[in-house]
Amino acid sequence: MIVYDGPVNILLVDDHPDNLLALEAVLGDLNCNLVKCLSGAEALRCLLREEFAAILLDVQMPEMDGFETARLIKSLKKTKETPIIFISATSKDAEHFFTGYEAGAIDYMLKPFVPQILKAKIEGFMNLYVGSKTLQLQTELLQRQTMELERSNRELMQATYQLSKTQALTRAIQETSMDTMMTFGEDGLILTVNPALRTMFGYREEDVLGHHVMRLIPCFEGGTFGAVDIGGSAEGRRHLEPVRKDGSRFPAEIQIGVATVDQERVYACTVVDMTERRRFEQELMAAKETAEIAARAKSNFLTMVSHEIRTPMNGVLGMTGLLLDTELDGVQREFAEIIRKSGEALLSVINDILDYAKIESGKLEVELLPFELPLLIEETFDLFTAKSMQSRLKLAYERDPALPELLVGDGIKLRQVLVNLIGNAFKFTPEGRITVSSRLMEDGESRAWIEFAVADSGVGIPEDKLPMLFQPFSQVDTSLTRQYEGTGLGLAISKNLVELMGGSISVDSAVGIGTTFRFTIPLQTMQEESGSAVNEEAAAEGWPALAREAAGAERRAVLVVDDNEINQKLTLSMLHKLGISADVAGNGSDALALAGLRRYDLILMDMRMPVMDGVEATRRVIASSRSGQEPIIVAMTANSLPSDRERCLSAGMSDFLVKPIQLDEVKRVLKQCGFEIDRMLS
């Protein structure tokens, strides 16, 4: 029980110090603090600071007598309940006493007073004070306990509500779940099950309660369930085959958890029927295999179509080009030019369709190989030299001086984008200027962001037509009287290639002023090196440039390997035009035989041939050659997929020419092999 044991203060107020000493002498042996004041004002200040059990107040005092002091004390909320005993020596009449009681006193002591009586009265007030404070403390404690009890009650009610809610939700989950949920003890006897048991196993609840869990899951065998093997996984899952009431088994995922209830271990088990999931996985696997077969078939079809179309086009365009180099009269030359232009237009359409098909089938990949940007631009411009001379257009190149010359990236795809955009500019610019520019946008430690732009002074594109430019098969003018031809795939292909290289493309145009296409791509940078050092690195990385230089004597021995007679004649004619004679083989086996009889410096090898294809022939020719005397082998292929390129390089080929083969490409290969083309053409 709590009892107040704090200080007990008694206030003594008298304007005579001797009287205060007398009071202190009487009350000094009481267990209290005696606080003395010489005036009413001083007493009020003490009352504001401390709490008192009783006040002994003199009536006759200067400035503020006892009655006025008592009235002020009673007017304060803090002190109005404090007992006041007046001490007086002047009057004993009733009116005087009435004034004192009216002012708030509860007792009177007349001087001279009896010490024992005064002491007894003060002790009484002290006991009342201690009792009051004790009651106050006990009341506060009771209030705190009541509040704590109320709070605990609220928490208990909330917990009870949450428990009821959780139990209701648990029941709802168990009753609506399609998975079987059960509990069993360490003895394996089933304690509870949910309604899904009947659907999954075919048993009613009463059929299994109290029975061993191995009746449903025979895989739980041996020992107590305290040491049951649940698969060794942290989640307590394993895949087993439970048994239904009819004896059939089915695949299931079993998950077990354990809890301690009344010092006994209880296991909670969830059985998930995996039959539908397994069926879905098998269907998904079958669909994946079907998709892979379809993808391979599509790839094979593209390869076949590319080969079957490019091979005759090689003869048409190649022979037409050679025909135009002969002496023809005006009509003959006009007809030959029509054949050449029509063939080139057809080839452009075919290339666009095949390229877009490659993109759609996901067969295009980025190849990171070193290249010289100025040389790439020069080779790109070479493709448009004749067209520029025949038209009233000037083709110009503006290069940022800060741009590095040696870069690493997919030069072939970069050149294809530039060719598409420049070709598009030629198509829509009847006269004026086409400017190609390259600018360094951001230069990192090992990577640079480079912006390429192709600007023309052509007819321009209406603003409402700009959003459809990069959509496949879309054209600005789709009317029956449209002036410009094409498949509408060139820009879509360019956009896909730019994004494949990690960049972005945009267009600005104004009708009657011109159009500017800009694309920005990231390219790796490399330190300036000598041509031979770069060439060696190119060879090590599979760079298609020929990584060999003419070693002393002029190379002259050439072998052409192709099963198509037209392609044989075309290739031989191109070589003859360049002043070079060559041997011919109709398949890889014949080529291998000829290579065993004579050391060839260059072999132009077709890829698809009967008896032995170009890849196998290349491997065998290189394997049968002496170290350091292997011929340079260049593929002649109608296939341009990255996988075909990889097969060529992995077989030991140094480069490949894509059909239809152009004379300029043959000249490039011969130059890299050490043939002095300029002297031959003189």
Report the portion of residues in β strands: 15-25%
Q: What do we call the CATH topology of the largest domain?
A: Heat Shock Protein 90
Low-confidence stretches: 222-235, 478-484, 529-554
CATH architecture of the largest domain: 2-Layer Sandwich
- In helices, the fraction of residues equals 40-55%
The overall strand count is 22
CATH H level of the largest domain: which superfamily? Histidine kinase-like ATPase, C-terminal domain
Largest sheet: 7 strands, mixed
Modified residues (4-aspartylphosphate): 58, 606
Subunit structure: At low DSF concentrations, interacts with RpfF.
Enzyme class: transferase
Coiled coil: 135-162
Characterization of this structure:
Residues 135-162 form a coiled coil. In the N-terminal section; belongs to the phytochrome family. It comes from Paenibacillus lycopersici. Residues 304-525 form the Histidine kinase domain. The structure is a single chain. With 682 residues, this protein is α/β, with parallel strands linked by helices. It contains 20 helices and 22 strands. The N and C termini lie far apart (127 Å).
Provide a short characterization of the protein structure.
This protein has 682 residues and is of the alpha/beta class. It is 45% helix and 20% strand. The strands form 4 sheets. Strands 11, 12, 13, 14, 15, 16 and 17 form a 7-stranded mixed beta sheet that branches. The protein has a 5-stranded parallel beta sheet with strand order 2-1-3-4-5, sandwiched between helices.
